[in-house]
Specification:
Blueprint lengths: L1 E10 L6 E11 L4 E5 L6 H9 L5 E6 L2 E2 L8 E5 L10 H11 L5 H10 L13 H14 L4 E5 L7 H14 L5 E5 L3 H4 L5 E6 L2 E7 H7 L3 H8 L6 H9 L1
Parallel strand pairs: 3-8, 3-9, 6-7, 7-8
Antiparallel strand pairs: 1-2, 1-4, 4-5, 9-10
Helix pairs in contact: 3-4
Amino acid sequence: MLEIKKVSKTYAGKEGPQKALAEVELALGQGEIVGLLGENGAGKTTLLKCILGYLPCRGEILLDGEKIGRDNLARLSFATCEHSFFPNLTPCEHREFYEMHFGNFRAGRFETLMDFFELPLCRSLKTFSVGQQNQFEVIMALCQGADYILMDEPFAGNDVFNREDFYKVLLGILEPTETVLLSTHLIGEVENFLGRAVLLRKGRVVGDITTLKLEEQGKSLMEYVKETYQYRPDRVQKALEEIL
């Protein structure tokens, strides 16, 4: 289990300290596909980077009761739109590098996903389009052999058909012990693929619900999000009236 206990993060700002996370409490069990949702600046990326140890923070982050460090960090992988691959290397060279450093690297999955996305094996990543680079970033996160796969807006720059097909493939390839934490704005697209949704607002968890519970309540995920954020459908009309 991945446990996040009272995690807080503050950045220095021109107008004083800016709180990005405020005592976030969250637990992720094995086999879950969890959507991390929230408006821009809600703290989604900050939370993912704190889990991985990229950012210092207050509070505790535990993996099966142990702090995350050199001995268990390989159980976490990360796909980010900021990219973490080596641009001068080819996919084949990345595979060799990962096989050397990650004993659980999933070579068969790598070959299947490279073929699925129709990505060239022997061209350097810097020659790929942004969409192809994002696809490759996701492939490496899924093939590392991690138990917890964190994704931060992984498909920015990809068309809707590629994204939809990927979610279907994702459900088909994940093993029961693999957990995905997916940060995204594309709520409508991921609704049918998530088992649980966690909502952040101004650095705090303001919602945490399973899709099964939403079905029992007769609500869509978008309805739940709007209700939780107290979205006012008349705000656009009022703004236009004031302008005109």
